[in-house]
Amino acid sequence: MSIPDDLLYTNEHEWVKLSGSTARVGITDFATDSLGEVVFVTLPEVGADVKAGESCGEIESTKSVSDLFAPVTGAVTALNQAVIDAPETVNSDPYGDGWLMEIEVSEDNPDLLESDAYAALTAEA
Asked: Which helix (H) or strand (E) holds 89?
């Protein structure tokens, strides 16, 4: 299981890559392993306001339907159309081409985990 050091993580298994005030968001390798094959992704509309820790979409797999939680608070500025068209990309490249959305961050998000803390969290699971 891969846990890149240059990302931040949530307890709900989303990852965040911050670039200035823009956060690129996806789900982790751990999440994709738990879900199985992703077959459908529902994301918020561009322009929608999302709040850290609240549901903002769904990820449907062959095993279940799971909520997608916003890891940061802000406005959605971009969606990854490639993932909407080919959801299995989330499984094959969760930290690259499988990103889900970008959010313009409007508040500090102190609950994000560094890679070592996230590794400890997933080791317990």
From this structure: helix 89-92
Question: How confident is the model over 85-97, as pLDDT tens digits?
Answer: 999 999 999 999 9
Q: Using CA atoms, how far apart are residues 115 and 84, in angstroms rounded to an integer?
A: 27
* pLDDT over 90 percentage in the chain: 92
Please enumerate in sequence order all residues whose Cβ is within 8 A of that of 82, keeping only pairs 6 or more positions apart, or say none: 89, 97
> Domain map of the chain by residue range?
8-108
Look at phi and psi of residue 13 and say left if phi exceeds 0, alpha if psi is from -120 to 50, else beta: left
Tell me which architecture the domain covering 8-108 has in CATH: Beta Barrel (2.40)
